[in-house]
TrEMBL record:
InterPro entries: P_Ac_Bu_trans, Phos_Acetyltrans/Butyryltrans, PTA_PTB
Family, as annotated: Belongs to the phosphate acetyltransferase and butyryltransferase family.
Phosphate acetyl/butaryl transferase domain span: 12-74, 83-293
GO MF, any single term: acyltransferase activity
Protein's name according to its UniProt entry: Bifunctional enoyl-CoA hydratase/phosphate acetyltransferase
Length: 299
């Protein structure tokens, strides 16, 4: 069990530095996050993009580029392809989006011939450190898959479990979230899908995890809620991972924890052959740095 981001960082700090390949690195906030990672001693970076623009921006924010490898590529599509190729060649262990559009970036990852796709689908994993929870909490998917069907939810769950396994969780506790803890197949299909996935986990079809559902959020995160409702669950009150039924639920979950709940957050895209950092322009500098650190830890 990892209690906070400091402990997550401690898991790999001091080990051999890993490298990040950045597509269109001519972005001040991205460069600042990368420089924070370099200063913390956890990563080196390969900057793929317009070299003149990278140098101009770095000069404005006082970043010493002699610490970085730069691959000059002004064209957006070629830049993404170049960053992907750095990873495919084994010269970087994490891919990061810079100034390029999300659509072009994801297209480069999913390219059948030269991309990085390795799992059934890509999914977003959020990692929270909340002052109101006793350990780190993972949640998926708040950013990639809008209305996943049951097969996509299984893939999302498998991606999240593999990431947790990489972080040292031998059998993370997975809560399949619905609005209730009882199956209501006609009125609330997500509850029935959660029950099916939980049974798959029980029978070993989804490995290296303890899975239960449907669980409402209070059942997943509060022992007291389980006591009041008389619910016995191997996950209840102690979930490591919450799998939400759709992107609306995930989006609300994410923003409530960060805006009203005071949680620190990191976000990583899973399902490629390496972890992918795809941060929002609205993310804080801390969130960008923690996203880089989390991706490095998972890689």
């Amino acid at each position: 069990m990892i209690k906070d981001f400091k402990e997550l960082l401690d898991r790999f700090t001091g080990k051999e530095k890993k490298r990040i390949a950045v597509a269109m690195a001519q972005d001040s906030e991205v460069l600042q996050a990368l420089d924070a990672a370099r200063a913390a001693g956890i990563a080196e970076s390969v900057l793929v993009g317009d070299e003149d623009k990278i140098e101009h921006i770095a000069g404005q924010i006082h970043i010493d580029l002699t610490q970085y490898e730069i691959i000059n590529e002004p064209d957006e599509h070629a830049c993404v392809a170049g960053a992907v190729q750095v990873v495919k060649a084994g010269d970087a262990q994490v891919l990061m989006k810079g100034l390029c559009s999300t659509a072009v970036f994801l297209k480069g990852i999913l390219n059948k011939e030269n991309g990085l796709r390795s799992a059934k689908l890509l999914s977003h994993l959020a990692i929270f450190e909340s002052p109101h929870y006793h350990k780190l909490l993972f949640m998926s998917d708040a950013a990639m898959n809008i209305a996943p069907d049951i097969n996509e939810k299984i893939a999302i769950t498998e991606n999240a479990v593999r990431a947790a396994n990489r972080l040292g969780y031998e059998a993370p506790k997975v809560a399949l979230i619905s609005a209730v803890e009882k199956v209501n197949a006609s009125g609330m299909p997500s509850s029935a899908e959660a029950a099916v996935i939980a049974k798959m986990g029980e029978r070993g079809q989804i490995k290296n995890a303890v899975i239960d559902g449907p669980l409402a959020v209070d059942n997943a995160l509060s022992h007291h809620a389980n006591e009041v409702k008389g619910l016995r669950s191997p996950v209840g009150g102690d979930a490591d991972i919450c799998i939400v039924p759709n992107i609306e639920t995930g989006n609300v979950f994410y923003k409530l924890l960060t805006i009203l709940g005071g949680a620190q957050v990191a976000g990583v895209i899973l399902g490629a052959s390496v972890p992918v950092v795809l941060t929002s322009r609205a993310d804080s500098d801390s969130a960008k740095f923690l996203s880089i650190a989390s991706a490095l830890a998972i890689s």
